Amino acid sequence: MKIKLFLLFIFVFILFSCGNNSVKTPLICETGYHIENNKCVFNWKKELCTSLLPEELPENAYSVQDEVIIYFTENIGWSKPAKCNWKCNENYFSTSTKCVTEGIKSQCTNILPENAHYSSPNEDGFIDRIYYEELNEYFPSTDSCNWDCNENFYKTENKCVNEIKVVNCTNILPQNAVWSESNANGLLIQGFNNELNVYEPAPDSCSFDCLE
Question: Could you state, in order of their start, the residue ranges of all structural domains in the chain?
């Protein structure tokens, strides 16, 4: 009797296992992506910076809300946005650590790379300079203004590169195969990894499907 019940259990298990066509193939993301809400997304994105607390702000200054890059890792998840920069109130000048009333505004002279713009606290193309009597000179220099890359570009060293670009797949397509939906027409979307200073995923990692 026990043997019959055991065989019946095995038969039912196999029947339901083989008849279950709703099992989906696990989602596998390419290098530089991770799974989020059942989709493959880039391992970096833009978020607003973290506002400075009142005790972190110099007197007569305010926190400047800018977008910063955050990164995703399997162990930690999304990194926290960096702290915001601060800027002095009107009629005050920055010494990099505090806001004072003695100073001048000078036009920025550093040459911007292509696809870049001056950024906080120099977004207007001017820099606060303080006079140091013992040196008989104003500081900082006019060629030290902050800058950032335009939208869809990313800062690496002293230039701006495309955050996302489309390239041709370089891996060889096997016989009786077609490029998969994510690499339609043999094209691949890459994102720039600032930590590694490379575009990901690699162009030779395109996926394909076999013809029926």
Answer: 25-56+64-88, 163-212
